[in-house]
Amino acid sequence: MSISTYLRSSYSGSLLDRGVILLVVIWTCALPVIAQHTDVDSTYDHEVLITQMRNAKDLMYREALHRYDTYLAAHPDDLPMRLERCAFIGNALYDEYEEYNPNEEAHDSCLTALGERYPDEPSVILARADQQWSDAKVELLSSALERMRGSGVAWTDEQRAELHRGLASSLYYDDRAVEALEHIEQAARYSEADRGSLLRAEILMATDAKEEALEALNMRTDTSEGAWTLQQRAELLLQLKDHKNALRVYREVERLDSNALDLGDLALTLEGAGEIEVSRSYFVRDTIRSWGVEAAALALFEHDLRHQPSDTCTASYNAFRDHGYEQDPLAIHRLRLFFHAPLQPWKARDLLGVFAFLSLFVFMLLLPYVWVLPVQFIGTRWPRMNGKALGVMPWGLKDFWWITAGYLIATLVALMACPSCVQSYFSDQWTDEATDPDLDARIMLVFLCTWAAWTVPMLIRSGLGVFRSPHWSMARSLGQGVLYLLGFRFLGSIYLKGAARLFDKDLGELMGWLSAPLAVTRAEMLAFMSSYGLGTSYLMMALLVPLYEEIVFRGVILNSVTRYLGFGKANLLQALLFAAVHGDLFLAPYFFGFGLFTGLLVKRSESLTSGVVFHVLNNLLAVAVVAASR
Q: Backbone phi, then psi, for 395, in 5-degree steps?
């Protein structure tokens, strides 16, 4: 009997009976509410609820996967649906915030199984490649490219473009820009969108094709790429000094998503467009953000040095310096302010930076005694080890100290051309300036010129007699230099090829054994050519550098040490130092052999001419090969 029926049948009972019945009804209705409130811990426990949600998500995932499997059981040849199933497995439970996918192995297994079943199917190959990285992706796509030409499977233009685009992207991020350029140009032939893509512009810039990169960046005017990609496009336009179009793109970024806007880059763009006061307002706004305020304060100071009066420059420097000693540890920026505005007042903390700079300078002058004094001690303690230096080369250990101190001082001076590089030694901060190709070229130029100038007193002291051989004619000196170079190049090529294979090195980045490695990478050489031109590159790298390096290593060091240790040990020492200053562990044996060969030439000819010819031809060929690959 229901409660309502029981109530109706008992309504005519006594008052007491009806009261009892009413209490029973109230208690019965209240039981769920009481139970709910007395079991709060289990009902509202967040861990319990999260577990229930996760279980529900897993149940929904399994249910959806079952629907795919049921369909594919009835339609086993539906390839698009099989790809959809793999895509579902890969994305259903992916956590973007944690960048974690519990189904990663299942996703890989799904795609691998499809690859085994459809090895030549374009959509399967591209889906698999999308989940690969670096060498694995290059290997997969390169293999597909070879099979594509011989298989009967038809590739659409969009699929061909995607294949070449994938190869270009992987090769570019693996620092193989020249190979990447070939593939992105192939992609552009199949897809018009790739002609103006950000990737193509980046690759063109990496290969120093700046005009083509600028054309590609300005080819697309729509905003479908999104704020982040447009921001990157604007940054490249700013690097190429196209301030007008960079400003146009930055305005689009600001309209789409102001949070994605880089205020510092926008300020630089406005400055380049001539809107100085507006640009400064953006520089100031950038200093009140929640992160990277030190870099923003430095950018404001740099702007004020270019365009504002002295008191404004001093105020912005002090605001920048307020962020800590590590912002300007050697007072380089304060010295720049001094040369810009000599009468502006100094603070005690500024003098601390100047003292640190002078201390470092003195340390650089004293450090060469670490290797000069042992040579003197050994030669004085055991005179039987002494050798006879060439009569036309008057250099001694004082000159050894001078020339090696010059190398350290040149390094310090070159670092002053990159204050952010100095700052990085004292803090964990990193700025885009440290990776600027133009800055790399400027540092290289300052270093080369400083050390070359430091070498001039050595040449003045010796005179030009060090280039005249008492035994060989000028023709023989030239011929011996060429002959030694050919012999060294043969042995050097054997080492480079074998070591490149052993250590998995790319000879292309070393400029190839035919071009003879320089002390700089191919990218650095391209940056130097881009900044200062081909003529300056030949003058510096193929003439000035070989000349002063021969004076330093085969002249000053070899002969000064020979007086104390004999020629054999002196030749080993100068070759070791020559390899060390070139700063590449992989190429150290190559440069060590280079030093030994040129040292032997000096010993035989008793002059520097053959070594200079050897060195000049070596560097000339290297620069020519890099110039031809631009």
A: -75, 145
| Amino acid 513: pLDDT | 40
Tell the residue number behind the tokens 């605001």, with chain if given: 319
CA 110 – CA 88 distance, rounded (Å): 11
Average pLDDT over residues 589-605: 93
94: helix, coil or strand? coil
Among residues 517, 401, 515, 539, the alpha carbon closest in space to that of 458 is found at: 401
What is the C-alpha end-to-end distance of the chain, expressed in Å?
97
Q: What is the pLDDT of residue 175?
A: 81
* Identity of the residue numbered 64: A
Evaluate whether 488 touches 597 at the Cβ level (below 8 Å).
Answer: yes
**How many CB atoms within 10 Å of residue 58?**
13
Confidence check: pLDDT of 11 > 90: no
**Residue 560: in which H helix or E strand, if any?**
helix 558-565
**Residue 529 corresponds to which tokens in the numbers above?**
């050519």
What single-letter amino acid sits at 177?
A
CA–CA separation, 124 and 81 (whole Å): 12
Work out the widest C-alpha separation in the chain, in whole angstroms: 143
**Closest CA relative to residue 220, chosen from 196, 199, 246:** 196
Nearest by Cα to 511 from 501, 522, 526, 500 = 522
Is the separation of the CB atoms in 488 and 592 below 8 Å? Answer: no
The 10s digit of each residue's pLDDT in 263-306 is: 888 898 889 888 899 899 989 989 987 678 888 999 999 999 99
Taking the C-alpha atoms of residue 291 and residue 283, their distance in angstroms, rounded to an integer, is 14
Distance (Å, whole) CA 5 – CA 23: 16
- Please give the Cα distance from 240 to 455 (Å, whole number): 37
Cβ within 8 Å of residue 457, ≥6 positions away: 402
pLDDT tens for 492-549 read 888 878 877 776 666 554 444 444 556 666 677 877 888 888 899 999 999 999 999 9
Q: Mean pLDDT, to the nearest integer, of 87-97?
A: 80
pLDDT at 255: 85
- Angle (CA) 73-76-77 rounded to 5° is 165
Residue 95 forms beta bridges with which residues? 100
Q: Report d(CA 593, CA 575) in Å as an integer.
A: 7
Phi, psi of 176 (to 5 degrees): -120, 65
